[in-house]
Amino acid sequence: MQKIQVLSQQIANQIAAGEVVERPASIVKELVENAIDAGATTITVEIQEGGISYLRVTDNGAGIEADQVPVAFLRHATSKIASAADLDQIQTLGFRGEALASIAAVSKVSLTTRTQQAESGTNIVIHGGEVRSCQPAACAGGTSIEV
Fold first, then answer.
1. Domains recognised in the chain with CATH numbers
2. Which of 136, 141, 107 is nearest to 30 (CA)?
3. 101-110: per-residue pLDDT in tens?
Protein backbone atom coordinates (compact mmCIF):
# COMPACT_ATOMS: atom_id res chain seq x y z
CA MET A 1 0.00 0.00 0.00
CA GLN A 2 1.30 3.43 -0.90
CA LYS A 3 1.80 6.08 1.74
CA ILE A 4 -0.43 9.13 1.82
CA GLN A 5 1.37 12.22 0.61
CA VAL A 6 0.55 15.84 -0.06
CA LEU A 7 0.62 16.73 -3.74
CA SER A 8 2.97 19.42 -4.98
CA GLN A 9 1.40 22.81 -5.64
CA GLN A 10 1.96 22.37 -9.38
CA ILE A 11 0.10 19.04 -9.52
CA ALA A 12 -2.68 20.38 -7.28
CA ASN A 13 -3.09 23.38 -9.61
CA GLN A 14 -3.27 21.13 -12.67
CA ILE A 15 -5.93 18.96 -11.05
CA ALA A 16 -7.93 22.02 -9.98
CA ALA A 17 -7.63 23.44 -13.49
CA GLY A 18 -9.56 20.45 -14.79
CA GLU A 19 -12.61 21.69 -12.90
CA VAL A 20 -12.60 24.97 -14.89
CA VAL A 21 -10.87 24.00 -18.15
CA GLU A 22 -12.32 20.78 -19.49
CA ARG A 23 -11.76 21.42 -23.22
CA PRO A 24 -10.99 24.30 -25.63
CA ALA A 25 -14.64 25.39 -25.69
CA SER A 26 -14.56 25.99 -21.94
CA ILE A 27 -11.43 28.15 -22.35
CA VAL A 28 -13.19 30.25 -25.00
CA LYS A 29 -16.24 30.57 -22.73
CA GLU A 30 -14.17 31.80 -19.79
CA LEU A 31 -12.18 34.28 -21.89
CA VAL A 32 -15.25 35.67 -23.66
CA GLU A 33 -16.98 36.10 -20.28
CA ASN A 34 -13.90 37.97 -19.01
CA ALA A 35 -14.08 40.25 -22.07
CA ILE A 36 -17.78 40.94 -21.50
CA ASP A 37 -17.14 41.70 -17.82
CA ALA A 38 -14.38 44.12 -18.93
CA GLY A 39 -16.94 46.10 -20.92
CA ALA A 40 -15.79 45.01 -24.37
CA THR A 41 -17.95 46.02 -27.31
CA THR A 42 -15.90 44.00 -29.79
CA ILE A 43 -14.65 40.46 -29.12
CA THR A 44 -12.78 38.36 -31.68
CA VAL A 45 -12.23 34.61 -31.28
CA GLU A 46 -9.66 32.80 -33.44
CA ILE A 47 -9.34 29.01 -33.32
CA GLN A 48 -7.09 26.53 -35.12
CA GLU A 49 -7.64 22.76 -35.10
CA GLY A 50 -10.68 23.06 -32.86
CA GLY A 51 -8.70 25.06 -30.31
CA ILE A 52 -6.32 22.18 -29.62
CA SER A 53 -3.24 23.83 -31.15
CA TYR A 54 -4.17 27.51 -30.87
CA LEU A 55 -6.86 29.89 -29.75
CA ARG A 56 -6.92 33.63 -29.23
CA VAL A 57 -9.55 35.92 -27.76
CA THR A 58 -9.11 39.65 -28.35
CA ASP A 59 -11.28 42.43 -26.94
CA ASN A 60 -11.48 46.20 -26.67
CA GLY A 61 -12.46 46.16 -23.00
CA ALA A 62 -10.96 47.99 -20.03
CA GLY A 63 -7.62 46.16 -20.15
CA ILE A 64 -5.48 45.34 -17.12
CA GLU A 65 -3.10 47.77 -15.42
CA ALA A 66 0.56 46.76 -15.81
CA ASP A 67 1.15 46.04 -12.11
CA GLN A 68 -1.99 43.87 -11.99
CA VAL A 69 -1.10 41.60 -14.93
CA PRO A 70 0.89 38.98 -12.94
CA VAL A 71 -1.69 39.11 -10.13
CA ALA A 72 -4.48 38.26 -12.61
CA PHE A 73 -2.98 34.78 -13.03
CA LEU A 74 -2.94 33.92 -9.33
CA ARG A 75 -5.61 31.50 -8.16
CA HIS A 76 -8.60 33.28 -6.60
CA ALA A 77 -7.41 36.71 -7.79
CA THR A 78 -10.43 38.76 -8.85
CA SER A 79 -11.50 42.36 -9.28
CA LYS A 80 -15.18 41.44 -8.93
CA ILE A 81 -15.53 40.82 -5.18
CA ALA A 82 -13.65 41.77 -2.02
CA SER A 83 -15.85 40.32 0.72
CA ALA A 84 -18.49 37.64 1.28
CA ALA A 85 -21.16 40.37 1.28
CA ASP A 86 -20.28 41.13 -2.36
CA LEU A 87 -21.52 37.67 -3.34
CA ASP A 88 -25.11 38.80 -2.73
CA GLN A 89 -24.85 41.51 -5.38
CA ILE A 90 -22.70 39.87 -8.04
CA GLN A 91 -23.65 41.12 -11.51
CA THR A 92 -20.78 39.77 -13.56
CA LEU A 93 -20.36 36.51 -15.43
CA GLY A 94 -17.17 35.64 -13.56
CA PHE A 95 -16.05 36.39 -10.03
CA ARG A 96 -14.14 33.41 -8.58
CA GLY A 97 -10.73 34.32 -9.97
CA GLU A 98 -9.97 30.83 -11.24
CA ALA A 99 -10.14 30.99 -15.05
CA LEU A 100 -6.78 32.56 -15.92
CA ALA A 101 -4.89 30.58 -13.27
CA SER A 102 -6.47 27.34 -14.45
CA ILE A 103 -5.79 28.00 -18.12
CA ALA A 104 -2.18 28.96 -17.41
CA ALA A 105 -1.63 25.86 -15.22
CA VAL A 106 -2.23 23.47 -18.12
CA SER A 107 -1.04 25.41 -21.18
CA LYS A 108 1.21 28.11 -22.58
CA VAL A 109 -0.47 31.51 -22.38
CA SER A 110 0.52 34.88 -23.80
CA LEU A 111 -1.57 37.83 -22.64
CA THR A 112 -1.12 41.33 -24.02
CA THR A 113 -3.15 44.12 -22.48
CA ARG A 114 -3.40 47.88 -22.18
CA THR A 115 -5.87 50.04 -20.30
CA GLN A 116 -7.55 52.72 -22.39
CA GLN A 117 -5.67 55.42 -20.43
CA ALA A 118 -2.16 53.91 -20.62
CA GLU A 119 0.39 54.86 -23.26
CA SER A 120 1.76 51.33 -23.54
CA GLY A 121 0.67 47.85 -22.61
CA THR A 122 2.09 44.74 -20.99
CA ASN A 123 2.77 41.25 -22.31
CA ILE A 124 3.10 38.25 -20.01
CA VAL A 125 3.99 34.71 -21.04
CA ILE A 126 3.16 31.85 -18.69
CA HIS A 127 3.89 28.18 -19.37
CA GLY A 128 2.66 25.44 -17.05
CA GLY A 129 1.79 27.98 -14.38
CA GLU A 130 5.23 29.63 -14.34
CA VAL A 131 5.85 33.20 -15.55
CA ARG A 132 8.44 33.10 -18.34
CA SER A 133 8.41 36.83 -19.14
CA CYS A 134 6.52 40.01 -18.31
CA GLN A 135 7.45 43.16 -20.18
CA PRO A 136 6.10 46.36 -21.75
CA ALA A 137 4.43 45.94 -25.14
CA ALA A 138 2.93 48.10 -27.85
CA CYS A 139 -0.73 47.18 -28.29
CA ALA A 140 -4.22 48.54 -28.70
CA GLY A 141 -6.46 49.15 -25.71
CA GLY A 142 -8.07 46.00 -24.37
CA THR A 143 -6.74 42.48 -24.00
CA SER A 144 -5.57 39.70 -26.30
CA ILE A 145 -4.86 36.26 -24.89
CA GLU A 146 -3.35 33.38 -26.86
CA VAL A 147 -3.47 29.81 -25.60
1. 9-146 (3.30.565.10)
2. 107
3. 889 988 899 9
